[in-house]
Task: structure prediction
Amino acid sequence: MDYWKYILRANPETSEILVAYLVEAPFDTFEETESGVNAYLPASAGQTEAERQLTALQQQFDFAWDKSFLPGQNWNEIWESNFPPVVVGDFCAVRADFHEPIRGVRHELIINPKMAFGTGHHETTWQCIAAMEYLPLKGEKIFDFGCGTGVLAILASKLGAAEVEAVDIEEESYRNTLENCAVNEVTNVTARCGTLAAVQGRDFDGILANINRNVILDSLPALSGLLKPGGWLLVSGILIRDEEVVTEAAAKAGFEKRKRTERGNWLCVEFRKVSN
Result:
């Protein structure tokens, strides 16, 4: 697949804020750099909307950008040079198949990300993985909303979930989830490509939602409807400064906040659906 590579030059804090906004654009992958962040846009997605958003963001934040065209190439080779393993304490390690096995962790996941988001490097995914160590997953029915590479769905399965449904709007993410499930010998994850309307399951015990603020805000009532009373919702992809607006919206949708963590400028929150 051909891509446009957008090179955004900004300080680290601004770079994180830009990613939070641009995940809603047609960009499907982000790569941190010493000077800012690279955002990758499938050539088939078109540039008009993406560049309109970049221009609008320049009215709010101090950054510069330019772009270059990347013809179809071996993305595995690119990721191999830019994707070190991720270790979350002694709980979980995430590596690609070209890395050596990682010793001293209870769970080791092999994730070959291609161009799908969710390698564990970003603060949001890292926090979700860390939180899952303490969530009730064994024997439960779990939904992974915005599954990316499938890393959280696969970890849920490894932690004993009875069944997992995973949905992502990006075709590449859907295919990558299927591939990574096969590599990790996980057979109880059902992946689908689409929006929340594509979800087949109901009465989930828990929902993982590592997406972005606006999608979470728009989806809270629907997510509440998919959960059993007393079920949990783990959300990330939220900047710390947006905690209040997300918490208030969650309360209106029937959730109460239980736990929170922060890493960098990013927040991860566990909510519980209030029993009827």
About this structure: Residues 213-226 form the longest helix (14 residues). The helical segments are 12-22, 48-57, 75-82, 123-132, 151-158, 171-183, 213-226, 243-252. The mean pLDDT is 88.
